[in-house]
Task: structure prediction
Amino acid sequence: MVTQSFRGSWKRITKNPAWDENVRRFTSFDFRVSAFGSARVYNFDFQVSIFGHLALLALILTACIGSLWAVEPIGRNRDALATAGETPALPDAGSNVYVVLWFDTEDYILPQSDDAAKRITEILAREGVRATFKVVGEKGRTLERRGRRDVIEALSGNEIGYHANTHSQHPTVAEYESKLDWEEGAAEFTRRERPGFEDLRRIFGKAPTCYGQPGSSWAPQVFPALKSWGVKVYLDDAPHVGLDGKPFWYGGLLNIFNIKAGSDLRPNEDWSNLDEAKANFKATYDELSRAGGVVSLYFHPCEFIHREFWDGVNFAKGANPPRDEWKLPPMKTPEEIERDFNYLEGLVHYIKPFPNVRFITASEALGVMPDRAQGRSFSEIELGEIAGQVSSEVSFQMHQDYALSASEQFALLNEYVARMARKQQREPLRLGATPYGPGLDAPALADSLNVSWSQFSRTAVDVAGFLEKNNQIPNVVWLGSKPVPPGSYLVALARTTQSFVKTHTLPDYVTLPPAHLAAARYVADDSPRLWEWLIFPEGFDAPQLMVLAKLQAWTLKPALLAQGR
Ligand SMILES: [Zn+2]
Result:
């Protein structure tokens, strides 16, 4: 960014509406020139009237170009920012109903499943619809071994996602993650699962765009690993995290997960409910088309042809037989198979003509729900508004066209206070990649704690260093010798910011009140229903995973549909 030519920068500014918005914000902020009158009282007022209009215009141009180059992103992941301004072209959203249609392509045992996947691509081609096929690494390798270039090519015409390396062979993802902490879990997921991801890249000639867990083998440590591989979307369904049945950001990824709309479109046991599914879609459409929304609909190619899942007959209840003992699952009759494909074709054919219905893939969802907070620059006035919304019930915030996770509020307000402490000129703050939640739990603060501004300001500078190095919220914040949970510290940052924005006077003391991470209520409490997948060993439970998952509620916020222009 910094080394970009003037011309290059200007092209990007003029081409992209998001930059127009940034320019507007820069111009409204940069003229609040800070003059450090005394150690404690700063004056932000600026007399515009002494300039003629032309001089003002020249200054605005200079100031905003300078700002574009000068603003330093907060947080470690600056690479992400290099493209953050390049928001994908805005679709004509308005009240569009987006249908994410995805197929978990996982059965590497029954050869007829290969043909089932191919037949689905033919149905989609007839309907003019592109879907997302989340392929298991071993499935991709099996297609290659069986010489099914035809299937590989047919799938390549759609979007390829990733569905774990071996899916149901033990230990599955949640099984091995259940015994690991945050960092070890991320590293182990990469060690075990990255090879299958790379195989798919080689076999299909493009990197998978999304990931979803096998069965309900969900774990929070996979998010930083996926992000480091370049995966930006988590596409699946399970009850572990959910935000009112709508898409959300969590763990730094766009989650199309635990979506309410579309859950009643799936076939029943004998696929006899096509008319009911159509009626359900009509009702969903009527509800969503008022303000726009996202429908998530999934199938497995193998379920069109088998009587029982390929993994159920081999890996149920923790069983882990060697390859030469794998059994073929029983198949349906030819009539039943026709009925099943007709269900899919009938449903897609019914949905397609609705006005403003758009079938989208996982990567297209990123364009439909861009994260407008990432890479955005925040003025002092906006930071004051953000601070005003922070309460002891720490959670995400909604603003006009963007949402902020608790960890993003923490990063912005800490940087603001750290700059107060450093007596730095107040340029707009640019938000970098969403910081992760803490990797360890910390006890809540029982009573309010008062500390001097001197101590609080030194802590803010220290925390800025921690965020810079780790891109993560610390599990405790040290006020000298006193450890404080990050939620309480965030509330104190917010109060300090609010007061400073109004008065430009530094406080003598700062109070850190008890607080709790209210956003954690969107993450399920550990219970047997989370781990009901038939493949898990009997009695499998993973309470520690849900403790880590709740800590990552720091990263949670709604995914907002881009509004049409
Ligand atoms: Zn699966």
